[in-house]
Structures are given as C-alpha cells and as structure tokens.
Design goal:
The chain has 677 residues and is α+β, with helices and mostly antiparallel strands. The protein has 24 helices and 16 strands.
C-alpha cells in the first residue's frame, strides 16, 4: 500500500523542509519539462559516496532488475499498449520529416503522455487520452518513419496495421476507461486482467471455489494472474518464468541472481531466493514466505520492492500490477520514523476504534526514511512518497510491516515547487493567517502524516476471525487508504506527538487545513469536467472531507465561504474536527474488521465519488489561471559502472534531463515482450 503526494497538487504547495542529506549541487534543476497536465522532475541521490563498492553494485543490479519489468505494467494496463508504445518509439526514433512542424510536436506530447501513463489511459483519472493531430497526420508520421520498427504481424502491411491501430488510438468509444466503476466493472474496463467476456459474478464465483473457509493464512488469490474465459471454461494464466510475461520475468530473475551474489548479508540472499522461486513457480504461498522473510529484515542498509503488489488498478481489487523500487536508508531522517514505530502499541491502544478491532500486540512494526535510486513499473514515473508493505493482513498481524517515507523524492518536490512562480496555497487558502500557518508547518506536518499513514495506519487494527480478506471487493482500496489517512489525521493532533518531539505544538493545524482544502476543493483540478472521482486515493480524501463537512455542519466545524466569486472551505474548530476524524476512523475500521461491504459501498458512493459540477468548473478555472500542472513524475538517475583495466572500480550517478530520451533508451534496452494482437 502506498500514498501519493497527499498535499496535492503538490504543484508549488509548501513542502517538507530540506533534509540534511541533500546533496549540495546549487545549480541542479529539478523541474525539467512540462506538457499536458504533467510536469517532469529529477531527483538526486544523496549520500551515494558513503556506500561501499559492493553496496553500489548491489543497487545497480537491483536497478537493472527493476527496469526489466517495464513491459509487464504496460500490458497489464491495456492489451494494446505495447503495440502503441512501440509505434510511438518507432516514430520518435526514426521519423525523417520536419520535426519542427506542429504536427510532430503535438505527436511528441502524446508520446510523452503514453510514456508517463504506461499506456493510453491517464495514470490518475484512468480515462483514455488522444493525440491532438488528425488520423491522416498520424498515418503520415508512421509512414515517414522506419516501418521495420513497427510491431507488425508476419506479412502485415503498414496500411493494414494502420487500419487496426488508428481506431484503438483515436476512437473515444473504444476502450474508454482503464478501470470502470460502472455496474459491469469488468466489461467496461480496458485493463488486461480479464479476457473472454467475463462478468464480475463469474470472477467472484471462480475464486470463491478456491478459497478455504476460515484459513488464517489465506493466500492472495488471483494476485499474480490473468483470468481467461475460453469455450465456456474459466482458467488462470499465471505470471511466472514459463507462463504469462515469462520473457520479462526471466530477465528480472537474471539480474536478481547477480544482485544476490553481492548482497549485504545472508538474510537478503534468503528472501531474494524466495522471490526468485516465486517468479519461477508462480506459487502464492512462496510469495507469502518471501514477504514474511523480507518484512523481518530491519537491519540491512539497502532494500527493494519487486513484484506484483498493489491491486488499485483492478476493478475487482484482486489483481496486482507490477512495480519495483530500489533504495537505501536515509539514516538521519530515519530517527523520526523510529520514534513513531517504537510507540506503535501506544497508538494502537489509544485508538478511538472498538477494542475488538485493536491488535493486542503490535509485532514487527518497522519504519525508516529512504533514498530511492531507481523507480520502475507502477512506481514510475509517478511514484508514491510513502510505502507500507506487505499487504496481507495476516502477515501484518503475525510478523509486522515495513513502512518507508521517501525523503529524496519529497526534497525533489520541494525544490521543483521553489522553481514555480505561483502557488496553489495562495489561490485556495481563505486567509493570510491560513497561508502563514501552512507555510510554517505544512512541510513537517505532511511528512509526519505520511509516517503515521504508512508506519502505523496501514498496520493498525485487525480483522475479526470470521472476516474474509477482500470482503470489501472493489471498495477495499479506497477504504484502506481512508483508514490509514484517518489514523494519521487523528494522531497528528495528539499531544503525544509534541511529547515525542515529532511535531511542534499546533503544527497539526496546517495538515488539517491542507487536507480539507485539498479534499473538498483543489484536488478537483485533477478531474476532467463532467467526470466523477474514480482514483482510490482521491476518493479516499473526498470521502473523509465530505463526511466531516456534513457531520460537522451543525457545529460549523467546517464552513463554506464564497467571496468575490471564489469558494473557500474554512476550518473553524480544530478540536471538533479531530473528533470527527476519530469517529470516521472507528467506522471505517469496523467496516474493514467486519467485512461490511454494503456500509463500505455506501460511504464511498455517497461521499467519495460525485462532484458538484459548478464547484468543479470553478476550481478548474482557478487552477488553470495559475499555469501549473497538477501531476508530477520523474526521470530516473542513471547508475553507470566505472571501469579501469577491465574491472568495475566504482559506480557513478548521472542525472539525465531528457524525458523522451530516457524512455526511448528504456525501449531499446528493456523491451522483452511481444505486442500481441
């Protein structure tokens, strides 16, 4: 489970303070490109030179393993994404016409969007986007490129290929939404987790037959497979070396083997061997064994995530997309995370939820701040800023969880914000006092909220023995993110945070102001006019804020004000708002612990989805007037072996600044899957 940049629209909002480990490169430019609704940044890798040669080699090999999964995510997102991406790469890499023409420049923007979203559907809103050129212009670009680079079938002509691919790209009625919330959530979704005209009921029945009732160590059924219906029969195609995505998985495994040869310790080697075994067999029991071994390693300096992990992209909330992150500890910043994790039992015991749903003993809760070196799969180019894994509730209960806050990415957001001329805060905050308070405390309060969300929020609470994991189905992701956010919001204001030296007094108020402003107002800038909120993290924030606004109405806890044609939401009573956060946390925990699907559905549908069209229009106009881009992503640094006399003597970090060039390079080096049609 992971958290995005919760403070919004992080575009030019106040950000966390600089970390002591930030590298001193005063001329380094963080914000390097902007297009559509996106901005591209770079991040630095501080403390690199403090690592040993062996540690650098380990990170390098893990990074190569991470980049080898690029094709997998694209194919999971949509069955024709690889064909489209390879076409885009062919045009950008070989078009011999005039590249200064508007036609080519507009196509290049489309190509960047495809790279950013790992496909043709918006990475956040999940709607299909389109090139701002004509179909005829597209055909001209393709034909004026090296057609041997196109993903043609054997014997297929370029004209026949264009006949197929053009409507896939341009027709708004084809494959319109990657993950649909319509009643037939499978049939109306363009993702590639299900094939053959399957219905939601058929998928549920297929997995219900597999599940063992009252199994305390239930595996994550369906996590690493595609479900196919053929000739009336339903079966799984499992992701493994000799199965689906095998050509890419073999490359991942080959680099993991190299990494294991230079691992820091036997513990790392043992769980990496389990991961390799899992990739070889596809056995989800082995996946659980890997997670149990991995989560208990709190000593190693270097760490990684690699696998089919998060199920946000599946309308059924079962299938996981592929992702990877490579990192090492930010030792100084980890001190704060450790303070929070060391007090996990106090937070659990003093939670406002029913005692039946509290853990009697918090096991293995570990937290750290990390420096990322490579982002990949569903974490690239738009990464989380916090992660808490593993996701299986029974493993969390019995063995604990790892929580991380990614400090060098937060620093990059900081610096990119400093390079922007305008601010979301100044536009959507109601008063100068609010602006001043948020400028003073938003940075540290956002970091601490992220720590609480990831370190303790996701790891808190427990299911009742009779509750099946996954009982909340398509609403599970939104409700789980709401639960973790509410945990963080409730405890940000607790005097314990000041007592522990984690937050200054009253700093929590900045987080409350930022959260309410974002959830009720400014995050709507990310949603296309006429659309509802579909992304899980956005639904979660909207749900919390709308519920608190409504339930605090009698006491004017949050007040809507309109001045000079602009709408603002003002927090009048911080203590009562904290009480509302606690009430909602208790209810969301009850819903999860009891598996109350109907109550969860009602919360999400009533508070997290629907958008006021007039307010939406206003927010979009105000945000667009700022000239800011609401979504951000990154270019990866390059880790380059340094050789002398035929031996690698060091690894240096380089910071490329060309988004397109990096993706074309990745296309040449890390493309292992065929574009099936």
């Amino acid at each position: 489970m992971y958290i995005g940049l919760a403070g919004l629209l992080a575009a030019c909002a106040p950000q966390p303070k600089e970390t002591a480990s930030e590298p001193s490169q005063p001329d380094f430019k963080y914000l390097v490109d902007e297009f559509a609704d996106l901005r591209i940044m770079r991040y630095q890798v501080p403390d690199w030179d403090s690592l040993t040669l062996s540690q650098k080699a380990y990170i390098y090999y893990l990074g190569e393993a991470a980049k080898c999964g690029r094709d997998i995510l694209a194919d999971q997102n949509f069955k024709y994404n690889l064909a489209i991406r390879k076409t885009v790469e062919a045009v950008l890499g070989s078009y011999d016409g005039d590249r200064s023409q508007d036609m080519f420049k507009q196509f290049e923007v489309y190509a960047k969007r495809v790279f950013f979203s790992n496909g043709i559907h918006h990475h956040y809103a999940e709607d299909k986007f389109f090139p701002e050129i004509s179909e005829a212009d597209f055909a001209q670009l393709v034909k004026a490129s090296d057609t041997t680079l196109l993903p043609l079938k054997e014997g297929e002509t370029v004209d026949a290929f264009l006949t197929f691919i053009t409507p896939v790209i341009f027709d708004p009625n084809l494959y319109a939404v990657r993950r649909s919330s319509q009643p037939d959530i499978i049939a109306n979704s363009a993702n590639n987790f299900y094939e053959g005209g399957l219905t939601k009921e058929e998928v549920e029945a297929f997995y219900d037959k597999m599940r063992v009732k009252d199994d305390a160590t239930l595996i994550s059924y369906g996590l690493n497979s595609k479900v196919v219906k053929e000739n009336g029969q339903i079966r799984e195609e499992v992701y493994k070396i000799d199965g689906l995505y095998g050509d890419a998985i073999r490359q991942i495994v080959a680099w993991l083997e190299k990494a294991n040869a230079v691992a820091e310790n036997d513990t790392q080697r043992a769980y990496t061997r389990l991961l390799i075994d899992y990739y070889t067999t596809g056995d989800l029991k082995t996946w659980d064994a890997y997670n149990i071994a991995w989560v208990q390693d709190s000593v190693s300096h270097i760490d990684y995530v690699n696998g089919f992990i998060e199920d946000y992209g599946d309308p059924m909330g079962m299938k996981a997309t592929w992702e990877a992150i490579v990192n090492f500890k930010d030792l100084e910043e980890t001190q704060r995370s450790n303070i929070i994790s060391e007090n996990a039992q106090w937070f659990e015991d003093n939670s406002p939820v029913d005692s039946r749903f509290k853990k009697k003993q918090c096991k293995g809760v570990s937290a750290k701040s990390i420096i990322v070196t490579t982002l990949a799969g569903d974490c690239f180019p738009a990464p989380p800023i916090g992660i808490n894994l593993p996701n299986a509730d029974w493993i969390r209960k019995e063995y604990g969880s790892k929580s991380v806050t990614i400090t060098n990415l937060m620093t990059a957001y900081n610096k990119a914000a400093d390079e922007c001329p305008k601010s979301v805060l100044s536009e959507f905050a109601y008063s100068q006092d609010e602006i001043d308070l948020c400028k003073q405390f938003s940075g540290i309060s956002d970091v601490v909220h992220t720590d609480l969300h990831e370190c303790l929020g996701h790891g808190s609470g427990q299911l009742l023995p009779e509750t099946q994991p996954g009982a909340l189905k398509e609403y599970s992701s939104t409700l789980e993110e709401a639960r973790a956010d509410l945990f963080g919001l409730y405890y940000c204001a607790d005097p314990k945070m000041v007592e522990l030296g984690v937050l200054p007094e009253n700093a929590y108020k900045a987080q409350y102001l930022d959260y309410i402003r974002n959830g009720l107002l400014s995050q709507l800038a990310r949603v296309e006019l006429g659309k509802n909120v579909t992304e899980s993290h956005m639904q979660n924030r909207k749900l919390i804020c709308e519920w608190c606004y409504e339930h605090g109405g009698a006491d004017s806890v949050i007040v809507k004000k309109v001045e000079n044609g602009k709408t603002y939401f003002v927090v009048n009573d911080f203590d009562k708002l904290r009480g509302l956060f606690g009430q909602l946390l208790a209810e969301v925990q009850r819903i999860k612990s009891e598996g109350d699907y109907e109550a969860g559905k009602n919360l999400v549908e009533n508070y997290g989805v629907k958008v006021d069209p007039e307010l939406h229009k206003e927010v979009k106009m105000r945000y667009e007037a700022l000239g800011l881009k609401p979504y951000g992503g990154f270019i990866n640094p390059e880790i380059v072996p340094v050789e002398a006399n035929g031996q690698v003597v060091d690894y240096r970090v380089e910071y490329p600044a060309d988004f397109v060039a990096q993706h074309l390079d990745y296309g040449r080096k890390y493309s292992f899957l065929n574009s099936k049609r």
